[in-house]
């Protein structure tokens, strides 16, 4: 479900989107401050920015991504709503808010017809719980609410879990792609909502 963007004062003077809320997750935007803090190994500030505990290896896992995304935001502040979000989960028993993964689009919509590319990961200890499926569905529904119905994903052919997640949304292979870091990847595309599906 999508909630409107509200201006929230921060040192970067950007509009920070409110979280997208699912039954188990809060998809919270990584602000420019959170990305810069992570790149500077200041995980305490990154955690405050998303109001959740972050993994100790956040910089190693997402540092390269944040380098790219921070440049995108500085170039086009309105792109922030489309980019990286933390999957934040509340443990009702302890009250702990923990980052359990990340999800987002690589860039705002582009092309004809307009489309976006989705990416996602779940921390190892939280896998096999359907969290990636829940987060991706929320992001596709959010984008569909913005009028975007064409989606792309690039997945390593050996990544069975990501392939299974993509298949749940009707993604089908349309080509191959070579990534300098990840090597060969399958290029997948899908329409959303799929026939017979309705966005949440």
What report would you give on this structure?
By secondary structure, the chain is of the alpha+beta class. The chain is 28% helix and 28% strand. The protein has a single domain (6-191), classed as Aminopeptidase, CATH 3.40.630. It has five helices and ten strands; from the N terminus they run E-E-E-E-H-H-H-E-E-E-H-E-H-E-E. The strands form two sheets. The protein has an eight-stranded mixed β-sheet, covered by helices on one side. It has a two-stranded antiparallel sheet with strand order 1-2. Strand 5 (85-90) and strand 6 form a beta hairpin. Helix 1 (32-39) runs antiparallel to helix 2 and helix 1 packs across helix 3 (58-75). The longest helix has 18 residues, at 58-75. It starts with 5 loop residues before the first strand and ends in a 9-residue tail after the last strand. Mean pLDDT is 90; it is low at 1-11.
SSE blueprint:
Elements: E1 6-7, E2 15-16, E3 20-21, E4 26-29, H1 32-39, H2 43-50, H3 58-75, E5 85-90, E6 97-105, E7 115-122, H4 131-145, E8 150-155, H5 160-167, E9 172-179, E10 183-191
Parallel strand pairs: 7-8
Antiparallel strand pairs: 1-2, 3-4, 4-5, 5-6, 6-7, 8-10, 9-10
Helix pairs in contact: 1-2, 1-3
């Amino acid at each position: 479900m999508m909630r409107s963007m509200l201006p929230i004062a921060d040192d970067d003077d950007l509009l920070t989107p409110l979280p997208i809320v699912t039954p188990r997750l809060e998809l919270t935007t990584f602000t420019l401050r959170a990305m810069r803090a992570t790149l500077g190994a200041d995980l305490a500030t990154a955690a405050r920015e998303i109001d959740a505990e972050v993994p100790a290896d956040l910089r190693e896992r997402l540092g390269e991504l944040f380098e790219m995304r921070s440049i995108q935001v500085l170039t086009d502040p309105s792109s922030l709503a489309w980019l990286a979000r933390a999957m934040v989960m509340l443990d009702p028993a302890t009250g702990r808010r923990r980052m359990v993964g990340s999800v987002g689009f690589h860039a705002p919509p582009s092309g004809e017809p307009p489309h976006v590319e989705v990416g996602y990961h779940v921390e190892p200890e939280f896998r096999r719980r359907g969290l990636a499926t829940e987060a991706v569905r929320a992001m596709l529904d959010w984008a569909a609410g913005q009028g975007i119905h064409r989606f792309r994903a690039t997945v390593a052919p050996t990544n069975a879990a990501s392939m299974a997640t993509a298949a749940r949304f009707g993604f089908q292979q349309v080509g191959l792609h070579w990534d300098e870091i990840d090597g060969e990847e399958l290029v997948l595309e899908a329409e959303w909502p799929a026939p017979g599906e309705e966005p949440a």
